[in-house]
Amino acid sequence: MRNIITALTLALIPTSVSAEPIEQRIAPCLACHGENGQSQTENTPSLGGQQAPYALIQIFMFREKLRVFEPMNEMAKPLTDDDLRLFSDFIAKMPKPAPPAEAGDPARMQLGRALVQQHRCDTCHNPDLSGKENVPRIANQREDYLAKTLAEYKNNSRHGYDASMADVMAPVTPEQITDLAYFIARIR
Amino acid sequence: MISNSSVPRSLVLAGAFFTAFTLGAAAQQPAAPPAAGAAPAAAPLPPGSPLIGRPAGEAAAKLAPIAPPPIAAAPDKLPTAKLKVPAGFNIEVYAAGMANARSLAVGDKGTVFVGSRLIDKVYAIVNKDGKREVKVLVSGLYRPNGLAFKDGTLYIAELSKISKIEKVEDNLDNPPKPVVIFDKLPKDEAHGWKFIGIGPDNKLYVPVGQPGNNVLHDDEHGLIRRMNLDGSNPEVIARGVRNTVGFDWHPETKQLYFTDNGRDWMSEDVPEDELNRVTKVGEHFGAPYCLQGNIVDPEFGWGKSCSEFTAPVGLLGPHSASLGIRFYTGSMFPKAYKSVAIIARHGSWNKSKKVGGDLVVAKFNKDGTMKSLEPFLTGFVEDNKYIGRPVDVLQMKDGSLLVSDDWNGAVYRITYGKQKVAEKK
Fold first, then answer.
1. Which of A42, B127, B205, B413 is disulfide-compatible with B94, CB 3.0–4.6 A?
2. Looking at CA atoms only, how far is residue A33 from chain B in angstroms?
3. A101 or B42, which is more confident
4. How many angstroms separate the CA atoms of B368 and B310, rounded?
């Protein structure tokens, strides 16, 4: 009898998991990353409108521990390849984050815009910083997360999927990172 | 795409000179006025920025490095049916399911080893009772792109260290941890991944790329070294190397030929990737001062002349990302393929209309310079998008040729003659 129950339970688990709609499965993610695509949590990125190929690469890297952040490594651990596609496609369709209500200090905004051009962020991330394919949307991302990420790329503690960002960040100073994050978070 | 091959070399070079001159002239024109409300003109880019030279304009703003999907394509999703080889040749899937499959090496017992760059694994394609099986040989490595095999030992090149696994084919199910033999290498991400090879002199050849698109690098970069198989006695044998991700030795002259990727953002059409040949220890191949043997670099070429450097023996197409190269020494392919070089061109990203994404065959003049370049395997580009990207080639004992594809995580096999497994299709 017990064996039958065990067998039944085992048989049920995968079915029940995959039968659960994506809205339900992604709810624990959005608890930190924010409903409607916009994060209210410190150092935690907004996911809305993110490029699906980029999002897939990141969840993959968390699953494989190629990108190390323990809570995310744990969350991604049980995901199948199909799950990765499902989650990244869903994220891409969530509304993109909105810029903060107030426009930002004009002098700082101008400084940031000049840096974006100088370091050619807009080549790969697009002029409106919406990203494309494996290059992420960074427009209106959280300022703290942007600054943290740029610093991590610079000191190579965040290993990119490929070498592009480490390469780009080599000549960027810590002060410039602050200015870039300020502008990118507020771009309109 | 490789129509240049039929034109006399002098003409091609003249064309390149002219293009370079035109470019230089264009660069002196005032830059396009900034859009209304835009910030003041951007300051000059610091040396080392990959985007140095990126022109203003919409077309250039569409170009970005293209990353492959991290998940290997299912065998039934591979583009094999779309791939084209010359008449009489066949192509089939050899093994699939190896995400980001890159450099290839084959063991004495026929095991094929496959490195990766964007993930942490080295795979082994094992032949067991006539069946092929893919195993993860090692995980947890950092950009293990390069592989070489000699006398039972597999050599693995990570970003900044070389290690080895002895008697690897006797321990495929439970291989020992790789033992480091050399780690005095820079840790730069840019062009930090490595191809390695073992020469006829029984030495291990290890390159270090330029740490950026176009960089005035120090003495620890932009070179090829050789060392004993235990990592001792390292010796720099070539300098001025921007980024080589494939080399092999000519079967008759035993000279080292290496592909080298040209810089980005100078123009759509120049510089071309280079095919170089090392004829003496310590030769300088020009980077970052002289490009493709006949263009002084607009930033670093001042006061330099291309005559100071060893010119390439052949040009392989602008931005084509020429990677793996192996000379054909087998008996399966027709006689015309004896001692030709088969080169994998990964394909361009820094170019509006894609170039490469194919295998080409380089034939040589008696003096060892390149005579012609012809397509061999095509079909990886569809509507100017990649459906696969070849990285490395490897000749098997029977004379068939393996090709790795890091876009799909697969290895194909090219054979010549009547297909014995034709009914499979």
1. B413
2. 23
3. A101
4. 14
